[in-house]
Write a structure and sequence with these properties.
The structure holds two protein chains of two kinds.
Chain A (H helix, E strand, L loop, with lengths): L1 H16 L1 H22 L7 E6 L12 H5 L3 E5 L3 H9 L5 E4 L7 E2 L5 H14 L2 H4 L15 H31 L2 H6 L5 H31 L7 H22 L6 H18 L11 H9 L1 H15 L7 H21 L5
Parallel strand pairs in A: 1-2, 1-3
Antiparallel strand pairs in A: 3-4
Chain B lengths: L1 E11 L4 E11 L3 E5 L6 H9 L6 E6 L2 E2 L3 H5 E4 L11 H9 L8 H7 L15 H13 L5 E5 L7 H16 L3 E6 L2 H7 L2 E6 L2 E6 L1 H8 L3 E6 L15 E6 L2 E6 L2 H10 L8 E3 L3 H9 L6
Parallel strand pairs in B: 3-8, 3-9, 6-7, 7-8
Antiparallel strand pairs in B: 1-2, 1-4, 4-5, 9-10, 11-13, 11-14, 12-13
Helix pairs in contact in B: 8-10
Classes of the chains: A mainly alpha, B alpha/beta.
The complex binds adenosine-5'-triphosphate and magnesium ion.
GO molecular function, one term (chain B): ATP binding
Family (chain B): Belongs to the ABC transporter superfamily.
Keywords (chain B): ATP-binding, Cell membrane, Membrane, Nodulation, Nucleotide-binding, Translocase, Transport
Chain lengths: ~350, ~300
């Protein structure tokens, strides 16, 4: 136990004295979230870029029919003439171009732009008399709670950052230590592989916890995120996620002293996780094998557990499956990592 | 009593047989030296004995038995090259390592012994090569070991620092500890070691106390003269009592009968103004045994 603490504190000092590492650990997730908050905001809907060609006549007029003017789907850009509007349309810098002062309203879209086709439909619906549309469709809005994308994204980003910090912060360091013989020096002491590994794991978990807490608080204050469910459940699923990723890193770092190879392997693991673990987007509707693969990745269970708690007010009962799976992954990888571990390359 | 006994050790790497059937015993309380040129297999042998790398075959016994987990508690090891935990000061490094052991040495004593007072608050990676060497030596002693392994403890040190390391080794020897070290320096081996084994190409080619080895292999004395002192071909002077060797611009004569040799030189009209006569040292012995210089 004394040996464990000795290594644990040494590792912690190493982390907080490494100012550059500390900075990126906290700044990176915060910047991503701030960036996405700026792009999407809350409750905003996607807009289409509309180029307005002025009416022909004595005075140039950009006046469009009132219902089109009021549509929230378009951001309007005034064009000097038709040629320039069409040029921009062809280059996909506009989604749609509209000629002001025409009746019926004439507009152009590009055949090769899917957004253009949708923009056209929206324009037609907006321009039509509501009375006429009623005969064809009936709009209803769903009752109750909806999650904004940015609120959905937030737990994903926290999870992703945890994954990178766990995989690279441990995997890379251990391989480097093996390469420059730090591990060999430790092997000459009574320290056991398990003591060494667990000191690393616990120290890294502390680091992840600390940096995530800072990011969480800053984001809550600035962007008004909220956690509807149990904080304890949230922390539990997050920390188990951290533990499972750190143990996964231990398996990868258990042998070998080639930093490039280790970093390649870590990238090979982290990239699919970034896209298949529903950090950025849902994979609902993806082929069955993709979903199966996604279930095999620990990060998937972290993001789904966190979302359940934060957005839908879940507690331990609701996320028990995630907690159990992550605990199992941690145990298996930790055992495997200690068993495979080699001090020298 | 032999504290360590090594029997027929072999280490086969894919392309080289780094250690090829090495056997030796280390008596309790002595300083045992492994000598040899680069690539002789010293480090490999030492690291197998320390339990850091596995042998291909052969046996390593500590106090008559295979090593147990206690070995790590009782042995202190200095490797030829190691990096240390980054972002830690020298003092923190010593304290961290001390806490890995059951019975560490008192840190203040250790710091005094290794004269590290001036660098305690510096970061590990912000000290000079010689200071780092001292830190590594201190780490090898941090558990107050019975048995200390030092792999080239003085390589890269200035003469004063080297003498300081020698003092430390002598001090720990007086405390009854056993020291096993490797070195390239014959002077170091002669000064520190009670027993030496000379290694070349993975095998021990001579072993014994420095005095015995010289007695056995380096018989007689060495006389050295510049080549221009000879009016005749020096090789014609060789006989059953005199060995003649060209060493750079000098001619070296090895003989058991210095009087007869000098008479022969005078008769041949050799100019004796620049002659030097000395008894052979381990360096000569090594040259004799391997036909190669130690540090080439
Ligand atoms: N990990 C390894 N893989 C392959 N060959 C190795 C390895 N380690 C050492 N060798 C080879 O084994 C031989 C002995 O090396 P060793 O390091 O034991 O020599 P040494 O006597 O300590 O030399 P030096 O005085 O330069 O430290 C060398 O030919 C070396 O190239
Ligand atoms: Mg060596």
């Amino acid at each position: 136990m004394k040996a464990f603490w000795a290594l644990f504190t040494a590792r912690n000092k190493e982390f907080y004295r490494d100012r550059a590492g500390l900075f990126w650990n906290i700044a990176f997730p915060f910047l991503i979230i701030a960036g996405f908050a700026a792009i999407f905001g809350r409750g905003a809907e996607p807009t289409y870029k509309m180029g307005v060609v002025p009416s022909q006549g004595e005075v140039l007029s950009y006046q469009l029919p009132a219902r089109v003017e009021d549509s929230p789907f378009f951001s309007k850009v005034e064009m000097p003439n038709k040629e320039e509007a069409l040029e921009k349309l062809a280059a996909h810098r506009l989604d749609i171009a509209v000629q002001a002062g025409t009746e019926p309203l004439s507009y152009w879209v590009s055949d090769t732009s899917p957004k253009g086709a949708i923009a056209g439909d929206i324009l037609e619906a907006a321009a039509a008399e509501p009375e006429v549309l009623k005969n064809y469709t009936a709009r209803q809005t769903i009752e109750g709670f909806q999650v904004d994308y940015i609120d959905w994204l937030f737990p994903g980003i926290l999870g992703m950052n945890m994954m990178f910090s766990a995989l690279f912060g441990v995997g890379f360091v251990v391989v480097r230590y093996r390469k420059n013989n730090v591990l060999k020096r430790l092997a000459a002491t009574p320290l056991s592989a398990f003591q060494f590994l667990s000191a690393h794991v616990v120290s890294r978990l502390l680091v992840i916890m600390f940096s995530t807490l800072l990011v969480y608080i800053a984001c809550v204050l600035m962007f008004g995120f909220q956690c509807k469910g149990s904080y304890l459940a949230l922390i539990t699923v997050f920390m188990l996620g951290g533990a499972s990723h750190v143990s996964l890193a231990m398996v990868i770092a258990s042998r070998g002293s080639n930093e490039e190879f280790a970093s390649g392997l870590l990238n090979l693991l982290s990239w699919p996780m970034m896209f298949l673990s529903e950090v950025w987007f849902s994979i609902e509707g993806a082929p069955g094998w993709v979903k199966g693969l996604s279930q095999a990745l620990p990060l998937t269970h972290v993001t789904s557990g966190m979302r359940e708690v934060m957005s839908y007010g879940g507690g331990f009962a609701e996320i028990m499956p995630q907690i159990l799976i992550l605990a199992l992954i941690t145990t298996v990888f930790m055992a495997l990592g200690s068993w495979m571990f080699k001090w020298t390359g | 009593m032999d504290i360590m006994k090594i029997n027929n050790l072999v280490k086969q790497y894919p392309k080289v047989r780094a250690v090829d059937g090495v056997s030796f015993g280390v008596r309790q309380g002595v300083c045992f030296g492994l000598l040899g040129p680069n690539g002789a297999g010293k480090t490999t042998t030492l690291e197998i004995v320390e339990g850091i790398i596995p042998q291909t075959s052969g046996e390593v016994l500590y106090k008559g038995k295979p090593r147990t987990r206690d070995f790590a508690q009782e042995a202190g090891i200095q490797f030829q090259s190691t990096a240390l935990l980054s972002f830690l000061t020298v003092r923190e490094t010593l304290a961290t390592f001390a806490r890995l052991y059951k019975n560490p040495m008192d840190l203040d004593k250790l710091i005094a012994l290794c004269q590290m007072e001036d660098i305690l608050e510096r970061f590990n990676d912000k000290i000079s090569g010689g200071q780092k060497q001292r830190l590594l030596l201190a780490l090898a002693l941090v558990n107050d070991p019975e048995l200390v392994f030092l792999d080239e403890p003085t390589t890269g040190l200035d003469p004063q620092a080297r003498r300081h390391v020698w003092d430390i080794v002598r001090t720990i020897k007086t405390q009854g500890k056993t020291v096993v070290l490797t070195t390239h320096y014959m002077e170091e081996a002669e000064k520190l070691c009670d027993e030496i084994a000379i290694m070349d190409q993975g095998a021990i080619i001579a072993q014994g106390s420095p005095a015995d080895l010289l007695q056995e292999h380096g018989k007689g004395v060495l006389a050295s003269l510049p080549a221009f002192s000879f009016p005749i071909d020096p090789m014609t002077l060789a006989d059953e009592n005199i060995r003649v060797r060209q060493k750079g611009d000098n001619i070296q004569l090895q003989t058991k009968d210095i009087k007869g040799c000098l008479e022969k030189l005078l008769q041949a009209g050799v100019d004796l103004h620049s002659i030097t006569v000395r008894s052979p040292n381990l360096e000569d012995l090594f040259l004799d045994l391997t036909g190669r210089r130690l540090r080439e």
